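Loading example: each entry is read as two labelled lines plus one structure line.
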Amino acid sequence: MVDIKITRASVLKEKPASSTLVFGKSMTDHMFIADYDEGQGWHDPRIVPYGPLQIDPAAKVLHYAEEIFEGLKAYRTADGTIQLFRPLDNIARMNKSAERLCLPQIPEELALAGITELVKLERDWVPHEEGTSLYIRPFMIGTDPALGVHSSHHVQYIVIVCPVGAYYPEGLAPVKIYVESEDVRAVKGGTGMAKTGGNYAASLRAGDRAEKQGYSQVLWLDGVHRKYIEEVGAMNVMFKVNGKILTPDLNGSVLDGITRRSCIQLLKDWGYEVEERRISYEELFQAAEDGTLEEAWGTGTAAVVSPIGELAMEGKKVTISGNQIGELTQKLYDNLTGIQWGRLADPHNWIMKL
Amino acid sequence: MVDIKITRASVLKEKPASSTLVFGKSMTDHMFIADYDEGQGWHDPRIVPYGPLQIDPAAKVLHYAEEIFEGLKAYRTADGTIQLFRPLDNIARMNKSAERLCLPQIPEELALAGITELVKLERDWVPHEEGTSLYIRPFMIGTDPALGVHSSHHVQYIVIVCPVGAYYPEGLAPVKIYVESEDVRAVKGGTGMAKTGGNYAASLRAGDRAEKQGYSQVLWLDGVHRKYIEEVGAMNVMFKVNGKILTPDLNGSVLDGITRRSCIQLLKDWGYEVEERRISYEELFQAAEDGTLEEAWGTGTAAVVSPIGELAMEGKKVTISGNQIGELTQKLYDNLTGIQWGRLADPHNWIMKL
């Protein structure tokens, strides 16, 4: 039992209408913080009014990106229950990221209490409308005020939450993807398997460039051969080729996505063969030419499942499933969101009710 | 002319004795800040009392490592002049890093004024003792309070300074280096050529591991072939092999170090042939075996020149120049520090007096 000290905000914010929500912008009234000091361990778990953190200008997080994060959601079901999707998977992954970044391990009980107690306090912020949810962002930062390049002795674990609108208010819509051949997001031996700031910092320029050319996201190639597909934007990626499902294997530079994991499970439940392996962009474009590339989609917490309608690369462009949502993509989306919002049974015990 | 508003600290800190200084821990009384907002550009350059920054918990820098930095020093000469070493090179590099990280370009005049005006205000903090200096850390952070993975519209450029002791109070001492074969610091297409947090975050684990085994730093291999030498710790690296100087070329994942650049210039002035090219660890160990690896050293702002006395890798270990400081290493150190502290002439106009 984690003893959390709660200090309530004296003035509560007005809750924005769900239709006006922009992803990640409308933070709620409170946040959870716990401190870690070497020798002392984790201490002072507390919920306080949401507001600026006081960070020393020499703090490691501002110079050496000693930072990791997670993303998950709280869903409101038809009967008003608030529930989480696989939160322990997020906590386990945060501890894997922590190992890579030399941040301390956080006990599951503390990390989870930070999430559940904050969401309970902010339960009125979990929106009611179809497809909406409360996005949860746990993160950990190294805050030692010292410029030496060393891991931090002082660390904070913080949880912030914000209501998010339906990712596809008009229904699932296919996106156009550009295959990035210049910038690299991560490489084996680097931090690609960790959910850490540096991977995202490396991705900003290509994302901006793709957007300017009218594409939603980039398809990332591996940093070694510049040939094998890794992720799409900040999501994992899957392809249906000739009835079989292909997805890049967890080779050390690909994030072990929780939506990815859930999709693989559902696909196997439905009898699909799922191959986790190297997939080159040549193989993909060849399959598109042969007519065997039937569907493609990204998987991630924000969008759940995001159909890919077009893939482009210097001089090449292919349309996937006629730039329509593929049948299996739609089925995956319907089933995962069905479980998340409590409309469908939860055969794998993925749901944690609050 | 940059119009900087100065707010002085009401109480000044006691200045620590130079002999007690730990690198990067004793910040001075003031800091420089300028804000950038998209559409408005840079504004409100100011010097304020040193203290915590107010950072929104959803700020990009805390989640997506949108952060770059520089490092340079102010030196006190025998006649009391305070001078900087190649500060415009640092500013030019910061703008290159900014391009990679989707941060705004900063005008040279503003970036330089932030450095020079702060150092002038803090001139009593520039220590007097042999080998000491004032370390200057300009940095830029993206502060948009929004969790979408996009580049920031609100940015801060901040300069903080701290006195630093002699890097080698007992004189130049050779260090032991471990060749890292698991973790990778950066890869071509990533952010290795930029001075940005993510590269350093990726380096922490290997650095910790090396230290635990009694080594000062790791020698980084490239992320593609895991074979070619890139940097040593957070420094560039050079080798004297059979009378010739070898150093890794700026291949996209190696930092374009200002001390590296200065060493190459001096070496060429002295008639040395300097080869900037791929160097494999096999070539290096072979040269050590053949007796042609005469000297090895790291180059960087903090240590200036750091002699390498031992190189180790799984199962292999070689001693370089009898674990003594090589003659050329010492000459480089003496000449660079001679120019920096104003004891020697400055033939290349590297010095900017304040």
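The longest helix of chain B spans residues 197-212.
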